[in-house]
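Morning run. Coffee first, then this:
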Amino acid sequence: MFTVTLVTWSIVLAVTFEFSRKFRAYDYRTFFMKLIGPFWPIFEILYLITMLIVLAVIGSAAGIILRDSFGIPYIVGVIIILASIGFLTFKGTSLIEKILSGWSFFIYVVYTLFLIVALLKFGPQIQKNLLSGVIVSEWIEGGFKYALYNMSVITAVFFCLTHIETRREAISAGFLGALIGILPAFLFYVSVLGQYPDVISEEVPAIFMLQKAGVPSMMILFQIALFGTLIETGTGFIHAVNERIQSVLRARGKEFPSWQRPIVALAFLLVSLGISTFGLINLVAKGYGNLSIGFFFVFFLPLMTIGVYKAFRRS
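And here it is:
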C-alpha cells in the first residue's frame, strides 16, 4: 500500500510542479484554468468540501487531545486551534512558508522518537503482527485511493512553488516531496502495530499508544507536534483560498488587504466548527473515501493526460 501511494505521489507531484512552473500557476484557480479550462470550478467545489472536512477533522482531533489529556472542554480545544489557524492566515505567505519548512524537521524528530518508544515497549508485538499479517486483495486500491484524496493538499502549497526555476528542480522536488510525505505515515504505521487491533477503534491512535507505553515526556512532545501539524495543515488549506482570491483581484488591478484574510478564514472555520460535531471517525470514514473518486476524474486523469502533454511538450 505504501509503495503504491509513494509511486503515485511521486509522479503526480513531479508533473504538477512542472506544470505549475511552466504556466506560472501558483494558485489553484490559475492551475486548473490552464489544465481543464472552463471546467475548473468543479475542482474548486471538491477542494472547498475537502477543506471543510479537513478543518472539521483538525478541530475535532484538537478538541479530543486537549479533553483527554488535560481535561480541557472539547469545544475550547476546537476554538483554540481554529483561532491559531486564523492568526497565521492573517500573517501571510512569508511566515507560513517558514513555519511549514521548519515544522517538518521537528515532525521527523518526533516520529522517529515515537517509533523508538514503540519498539522498546511493544517490539515483540509489532514483530508478531508484521509476520502474521494477512495481505488483502484491496491493498493496491487502498494505496491508490489514499494517494488520491490527499492530492488536494498539493494545491494548498502552490504558493511555495515560486521558488522552483527549472524542470529538473520541479521533478526532483516532486519525488523528494513524495518521500518526505510517506515516511511519517510509514513510521506511524509500524509504531501502532504494537497495539493492534485495539488501536483501530481509537479516535486518536497515537495518544492511545503513548498512554499504553507510559512515557509522559513523549506524550507531551507528540501532542505538541500533532497540535502544530494540525494548525499548519488547516493554515495551508485556507491560505490557498486567499491566494486564489488575491490572483483574481490582482488581475483586475486590485489588492487583497491583509486584514480581510482572517475574515475569509473565520467564515470557513465557523462552518467547519459545525461539521466537527459529527465526530472524528465518521468524518474520516465517510468523507475522504467519496472525495477520492472526484479527485480522480477532476485532477488525476486530466493531469496524467492533458497535464503531461502541456507540461513536457516542446514549445
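The chain has one domain: 2-312. Good start to the day.
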